[in-house]
Design brief:
Blueprint (H helix, E strand, L loop, with lengths): L3 E12 L6 H15 L9 E4 L4 H4 L2 H8 L6 E4 L3 H18 L4 E9 L6 H7 L2 H7 L7 H16 L3 H19 L13 H6 L2 E3 L2 E2 L8 E10 L10 E10 L4 H7 L7 H14 L8 E4 L4 H10 L8 H5 L17 H4 L6 H11 L13 E6 L4 E9 L3
Helix pairs in contact: 8-12
Amino acid sequence: MAIPVISGLGEVHPCRRSGRSAESLILEAIRAAIDDAGLVPSDIEGVVTEAKLTPESMSIDRLVPSLGLDRLRVQALSSPVGAGILLAVAHAHEMVKSGVARHVITYFGVDWGTNGSGPAGLHGAMSAKRDVEYPVGFSGPPPYFAALAHRYAHVYGLGPDELTQLLATVVISTRANARRHRHAQNQDQLTEAQYLAQPYFAQPLRRSDISLLSDGAVALVVSASDAVPAEKAEVTLAGWGHAVQPIQDESFYTQSRELPHLPATAAVADMILTRAGSSVASADLVELYDCFSIATVIQLESLGLTKPGRTLERVADEAMGVDGDLPVNTHGGLLSHGYTLGAGHVAEAVRQLRHEALGNAVVDATSAFVGAGPGRQYTGLFLRRTDV
């Protein structure tokens, strides 16, 4: 019986400034993914992508003639930004599983390093933030997540030094992983002393606690396993989950009463257990949307990977490193690999499970969890090799 598999992977690795448009980056990634799957554009029958940024940067309407997709049968948009990027992968899986299409493309790319104002502009376009928060200096994601870090410390009784140590541990571990990845955008060494010497960007967050600004793109081809060679059918989506908390996006990070807990993230962990038959904690590696270091912490706790307020003791002694017992963001994540809003996290998981990671491989990895939100909505993918 044919199952959906990730047959093709294409990535334009992130850089600070490419001088190219997101459309150009995306087309290169898609062509690479189709080629990696051993297919040609006319084999593609479905396309699905993220719903907020991609329609402006590379709409499906423009994609179809650019690639010559003359057999397209189904197309769809998922949900906004990071969670939507992962949800698009899940939708592609369901399209193939249902028999609607044999080969489906999902893609995402961004040129925020070269063009645009990045996430600050995205948030600034929301009326409540533009009219109420920005005029008083509460301008953009760094202050939101700085406030979240203070909230976390207050709820769980962490002193300033403990909070600093927690954030430093996450950042230094992530950077160490990036230094082992040949295409990470930031491979500079980062010691604890160097981290502490950095000035605050938004206290308690320093520059290294904040995601990079990047250009880059990722594309995947999801195929029926009997429609591709066996060597292209190594990775499948064993289970996925998506959940949404009923609060407006523009209100979540500043007004959610649940913080630092993430209800949607916790709900996804339950879905993964039900649908994949495995817990998130059973995955050999975990790739989490780490727009800020504190975002990694609250996801680890909401997913049940660490105990609430006790993450520091769990991630000590390089536990989050590639060779640790809780490998997290093995490519360096948004903090050090590149800010492709979670698309790079999926690419890294696929590469790890194909056993194609060079220098940063989690030895004999057979399963991976990828999660993105992290906010009012969350999507999780549990990927597994097909030979286990």
